[in-house]
Write a structure and sequence with these properties.
The chain is mainly alpha-helical. The chain has helices at about 5-30, 35-45, 55-60, 65-75, 100-115, 125-145, 150-155; strands spanning about 50, 80-85, 90-95.
Length: about 160
Amino acid sequence: MTTPTTFPTVLRELLRTHQAFLAYAASHVHKLDLTLPQFDIIITLGNTPGLPYKKLGEKTLITKGTLTGVISRLEDKGLVQRVASETDGRSQIIRLTEVGKTLFESSFPEHLSFIGRLFSDYAPEEVDALEAALKRLHEAVVTMRKNGGESYADEE
């Protein structure tokens, strides 16, 4: 088990890595004249017939309050469109336009390749170990949130 004196350094590295990763990803996305949230919408909608706002919000890293503005800016660029839902007259479906589909099809594989360069010095088993460690950390965070910050050990 990690002692309280060692986890702050892990937390610091996690946050530094997160910030550096976002800056690295943004450097590629900005060449497409998009922000990271805009690109998140494009890649989430790619290969779908469109998604309702709620589902789109759940699948992206964009907060509900920000989502409408991001979609509006993508709409202004001609990359997405809002259409009435055929099953629920109160909701709208957000989908890529033809221009948006073309952008997705050309930029997503390129972006994956760009991000993949980060792992070029890792052996496959190192990537697997990193993924496993991150999944375990994610599960711990989700469990703690569900328990209001209390671990199962604290409840005993």
